[in-house]
Amino acid sequence: GAVVSQHPSWVICKSGTSVKIECRSLDFQATTMFWYRQFPKQSLMLMATSNEGSKATYEQGVEKDKFLINHASLTLSTLTVTSAHPEDSSFYICSARDRTSGGPYNEQFFGPGTRLTVL
Amino acid sequence: SQQGEEDPQALSIQEGENATMNCSYKTSINNLQWYRQNSGRGLVHLILIRSNEREKHSGRLRVTLDTSKKSSSLLITASRAADTASYFCATDRIQGAQKLVFGQGTRLTINP
Questions:
Q1: Nearest CA in chain A to B104
Q2: Cβ separation of A108 and B94 shorter than 8 Å?
Q3: How many CB pairs below 8 A link A and B?
């Protein structure tokens, strides 16, 4: 299957700082990218959906000014956690799909995740 | 918001036994997918079953889909210690934006 990479794989930062996480589709054009958050022993919660070149659509309860998403190209999306606080510590997973292929059955590919710890 | 619910939330069986996990969802779907996640790691895609399919096999995995009951099951036969992981179903809904929404997951423990 297609490969999605994330960088960094883990990051530790001080409270109040901003952290940027990159998500790249390595061998396909990701017309749509998704950002999920997962707390320990819980499921993945969708945070936002972004289409290349347009603004992200955030799920209910997710602060768009806190979680800035940029999908500037067909292979790169970034999530910036602004003014991070300890409660933002979580596992962030990006995902991508190529909506131009496969119709309604196209697969969504997942990155390996980024573990964020805010001290 | 979560689309699906899975049961059981946790399952512990002996190596060699079969493990069955169930997933229920609420809205009409294009497809349903099952994923595995080892502790602290990323997701591994297991099977995608389309809305017009009723059963699908992949190695020791068997997935069924009943769209009339809005439910799916994942059967792992002849379980191994390496199957210990969390298993999630995810639905791809027909209406609205195409995006996968995950169930709560089942934590499977295979005892040697």
A1: A43
A2: no
A3: 62
Judge contact between A1 and A107, C-beta under 8 A: yes
Q: What percent of chain B has pLDDT over 70?
A: 94
What per-residue confidence (pLDDT) applies to A72?
A: 82
pLDDT value for A99:
63
* Span A52-86, pLDDT tens digits: 888 899 999 999 999 999 988 889 999 999 999 99
Contact yes or no for B100 and A34 at CB 8 A: yes
Sequential DSSP letters for A4-46: EEEE-SEEEE-TT--EEEEEEESSS--SEEEEEEE-TTS-EEE
Contact A43 B40 (CB under 8 A): no
pLDDT on residue A78:
95
